[in-house]
Here is the input.
Amino acid sequence: MLRVAMLSGWHVHARGYANQLKNMPDVEITAVWDEDSQRGKSWADELGADFEPELDALLQRDDVDGVVVTAPTNMHRDIMVAAAGAGKHIFTEKVMALTVQESNDIAEAVKKSDVKFCICFPHRIEPANLFAKTAIDNGLLGDVTLLRVRNAHDGASANWLPEYFYDPIQCGGGAMMDLGAHPMYLCRWLLGEPKCISAMFNSFTAKPVEDNAVAVIEFKNKALAVAETGFVSSHSPFSLEVYGTAGSLLIGGVDGKVHLHSDMTSVDMKGWLVPDNLPERLPHPIEQWVNGILHGAPIYFGIEEGIQLTELMQAAYISYKEGRKVEFPII
Here is the structure.
């Protein structure tokens, strides 16, 4: 049995993670901590768990084996360093932390305590995106020249996101820091090590943070990537496009399908194809975390991946704020 504490109901995904855990037979939610005591007490009652007003006290509990971190992003470093120091396994909402230094502090604490760590990268479990990775790695598209990933919704323009999601202190940014994490980690996973990045953000709704954002990344293999995101796009389906010297791959869009045109396919498979042999979906990240702790199963998104995402994010915000291209590594 894995006994889990929920650390804050701040993030919009917090309740979703709790519901997933409640539906797992070998998991029990035993405690809740929240920087907002009223919210935390209410949520603990809903979950049938104890509310602990002090984080240190919660981390000393014998009936807590692991924690789910869905607190404000600017609190991630201190929470996770403390959790690792107390020997608790960690599952965290993206991003890992606001700076590479903070992420490195977390990494050091996790490695020192030898606890399991998983960051939530849900788009990396999807069959279509796994197919893209295989197609690129196997040279089905030749040398990749351009990758475009778009992930956007209308949370700001339709006014359904919580107001604190526009707090530049708690969040460290806006649409790019939150929803833009998905295009960013997909670009890093698919194309490898980045060389430099340029970012352009604005606030269409006049929020304190950006709600409309684009980052252009050059990778060491000379491929370019465009990561698009926003809180001001209605009916904007996820899309991933890969273009190479020997083919093109289009994923998502209006029909949500995978479309491939490759010079590397056999003669009887020319033109645009809709592959039907996609890889099997991986377990959800929180399932990976639980199974990694209880059964030693693989956790595909860990410390290294978390740091890589933070590095892209920190560089993108430097680029936007200073109006310049930023080279990697940034520190």
